[in-house]
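Table S5 (text form). Sequence records supplied for joint modeling of the two-component complex.
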Amino acid sequence: MPFSVRCYIFGLVAVAVSVVATLPLSRTDPYLLLALCVLVVAAERLSRVSIGTSGWTMSVSLVVTLITVLVLAPPAAALVGLVTSLTLPRLQTWTWTKQIVNSAMMSLVPASGAAVCYLAGGHAPGHFLNFPEFLWPVAAAVTTCLVANALIIAGYVGLATHVRFVDGLRGDIRRATMPYYSSAVLALIFLSLWKDIGWYTAPLVVVPMYIAHWSLSQYAKEGAAHEGTIAALVQAVEIKDSYTRGHSERVARGAGMLAEQLKMPQDRLAMLRFAGLLHDIGKLGVPTRLLTSTGGLTEEEFKLLCMHPNHGVAVLRDIRFLTEVYEGVLYHHERLDGRGYPTGKSGDEIPEFARIIGVADAFDAMTSTRSYRAARSVEEAVAELRRGAGTQFDPDLVRAFEAALEIAERNGQPWVPTELAPVEPQQDDETTAAAVGPWPLPKRVPGFSFADHDDPFVPAEWFPDWYPSWLAPGGEPGQGGIPGQRTGEQEAPPAAEADLDDGWSERMYSAVVREAGPEPDEGWSWDGEGAEGEAEAEESSETGAHTEPEESSEAEAEAQVEVGAEPELEPAPEPEPALDLESDLESAPESEPEPEPARGLQGDAEPADASEESEAASTRWPVDPGLHGAPRGSMRVRSATPAADPDPRGPAGVSASADGSASAAAADFDLRKPAAPCQDPAAAAGEPAGDDDTVPMPQPKPGDPEAWTPSPEPWSAPEPAAEASKTGEPAGTAEPVEADGRGPGLSAGASWFSRGAGGSSPTLHFFGPADTGPWPPRDPDAKDSEESPA
Amino acid sequence: MNHAKPPSHRAFDRAFDTDGGDVPTAWSQSNPLLLVLACFVAFAAVASCAVHGFSQPGYALAFGAIIAAGEAFRVRLPGGREAAPLGAATGLAYAVLTEIGHQPALHNAPQAVAVAAFGFLVGSVPHLAVRRPSTLDYTARRFLMVALTAWLFRMFYLRWVLGTRVDDPTLLRPSPLDPTFLSRHLHSLAVGAATAGFLLLAIVSDGVVGSILQAGQHRRPILAAARDEATFTTRVGLAVVATALLVCLASRTMSIWVLPALCLPLAFTQLSLRRYARIKEVHLETIRALSRITEVAGLTQPGHARRVARTCQRIGRELGLSEAQLLDLEYASLMHDIGQLSVAEPVHGGRTAPLSLVRQRELARAGAEVIRRAGALGNAADIVEHHPDPFGAAGPLPSRILRVANDYDDLAGAQPESAERTEALRHIRLGLAVHYDPAVVESLSRMVGE
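The corresponding structure-token record, covering 1240 residues in total, follows.
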């Protein structure tokens, strides 16, 4: 303990003891003293709630303490306070030091108040309880108590911790004002009622105070609940990427340390911690491969990556009171020299929160383990920070962060580099959940080298979380899209629950994936063939569905040969809907000649075509604009329009991911689609025959309520994989014509905010992975033959 | 009273209200019957005062000012309820006040009501001026409660039962027989108890009115509404009653200084209630926002969680869940798809209805695990864990509501046409009593049909 603190405590104790020692024993009423002591202790035990975050507590005993101030002489009041402090319940953070300081304080504060009250004439019999003359001594005494309390506490905190004395004093006075004054008036009323009517009315006084305490405790509990919720959700988001688990919490801690060093006020500090916790929420909207790569990205992929702060803000925008948090999350990848993303702000344009989070983010990325390199030490990381100060980081913040690290080390809470052992896959039992996390962790796939998008420097190995089905090493069964899912044998509906299922899942499925309307010249095949035909197809293909995952990894041609309809959804390469239903129907039979006979459906060919095609369309959720004209019949294949709740990634984004999901869904569930024509280049090429290296996009008719145009870049993404596989190159080389040639950062920012206001370029693209392949996108380093999508 | 919509005090809730295009004003959101009654009572009191004159205007002004202040700083708790304990307590205190500083309080019932009306009106002006969509329901209820108490106590009890007329000048002269009859009598325990009784009656009547309103507007069963009102009223109402009683008792000694003295703890309570309401609101908004994480990742349909939450709320209110259960259900319905984060490739765009029971249970268990780690979300984890269970082995009622709402939204989509809604409902009904709870489905069909 520093010498100054010891001196301080010694001084406090000395003064308190001397005050108590001057107790005039002959003139004090022992029974009154005893009664008040008992009252205080009882009040203390009954209610002590914590207010605020810095450990301040208050209780009803404050009322009784102030009664002693108004009634007793200073030494007697000091004695009562001392007795009270000795009976305080002991928390886990109890130390002798704290006990001594508390006892001294609880003796000195009432003593000073009583002294002031006496000096102001409050104890004189003429003034006591005569209003309004009694009010002024009371006010003076209570204010003295408040100030003395704050002074003593702030003095100790200022000496023992790095918090400034003035800051602590101001905070303490602000927090303690309300409790003190409300307790004071209740003490007044307590005394008046006691003297006037009788002692039995006195307990009435406690009720309002108790309600106040209850509301305070609810506030504290709710605040804790809020933090707990955020922490749990952030943990859930991070569980996908085992190497960044806990990253958000560490960034929040680092940002908090930095902000304390900057003497940020407490409420802003709390907001900053939220920003630190939530800053990487948006990375779910980006393929992990992009998050972990460095320099190997195409321009489109880089644009995708640049959108992850925007995704984060899209999730957070509905929370009020979080203005600075938005800024912090949106701009946390900005660099001081303007080369950051998404908007390329530079220098002081970057909000303070964003700069702070940027420093903490990079620091934690450097001091965390990657699979090929251990975590860098704190010194190395600080050296790197210094190297980047002025270009990437704010130099003042870097300096302050260094100082904060040193202080933390001095206080015994140093920053420990995060050593994460890579989680070994459980080879023996795929079905057991991993030791950490609520769900099973996926297997490692060696051989990829990527960096972390937060790490400013060196690449690291990638621990895949999104496990593409085609990467199944050794072709193990059950390595489907869902990592760690149970093996395929278990997927067959166990006979035990056949009675429960009894076709229910199929029925639900048929309802979810809606049927198209009838042909104009045909009738509406309502519950007739449509539903039952599908139901039958469902049942017949139900068993086939569970071997789906491995099929998708094999060549599709095999699937076509399979007996009993292995219909699959055409993966995304089955390109974007043509302008109207008829042309779709015409093209559909052309593009799927082979799988047709394999279906074995009993329905008509054409409604089946319609249903196939429209299933493809419908599962290309959320919107297939212009696919169907005026609605006919009751059931429309109209997927959910994101109008009411605008999708954070924009209509293009969601539909594209759904395209990917649709194609991936093919991997898992049998969707009664024939084998995909995508490995049939002719068929794939045949679809967009009419268009030149752009994705055919139905032009929205005027007045069509469902019309929407996906915004231009950066939502735009490279070619559909059909053409990519056709050309045999990694996706993205055949670049679509960009609507405008702005840089990625600027365009990303501008497009984000003017989404929907931008005109529709003739070359409209769907967002993301559907066009590059199965979700998540494949690794550009892999061989072409490996990466061609199933 | 089905025409009165529940007040949507959250801006983004209003975005979902397809009917009612422009910003709803406070008048349109309040119960017209209450408003009319309150206006009538206020006018009657003011007219009577104008005829008979004011007595002790200074005290009247002081009380009115504090009522206005309490009303201006009222707290809107999440769940739509409003609390202004300071205003209510001061109004009640003025209604039952008998002596101020050794002088009898000479105001009669109409004056008490008029002062309360003035205070409530002035206090509501800031809220109306800011045009925050709010309701005048609670203000009207508080005012009517104070008016009822004033009438019962001053007119009925003091005048008829006790036979005293406080504005009778003969009282000011101490009668030879018993000089301090009034003061002694008024401060006996019996009168204190009687006063307390009247105050409690006021609070209870307010609770009854509130539960009737809730039952009418939100279609809740009246017992559930009464239980909720009782739970809420117990705490805040107790503080209000105690404060009013203390004012009445202590005003003899402290005269008018009792007012600022007693208002401090209530103001303290009100401020902490405000902070509590705000952080609870932020908490709820955070959960709403973070429920969209899965949408960003493309793992669920956009808006699915919100729609399911809204549907669950409406069904739950109809089926009589308590407010705590409704809150848990809202949390659970917002977070029920969190388990999809464990899925690499979303199936069916995240719709869980077509999945097999095993798969649904896995997802639900994963989601419940996440919610449990959050720690403070109460029973939401259990609700999410049991929601895929079929009706035969079903979980508690909130789980069954969640299942039906989830499947309905999976089938119906974002903005279903009437045909699609009918179709989705048909599919739901096919699973009646096997997968879905019939009562819940019935409530859903009522909700869908409107």
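Note: Chain A touches chain B through 122 residues (CB under 8 Å).
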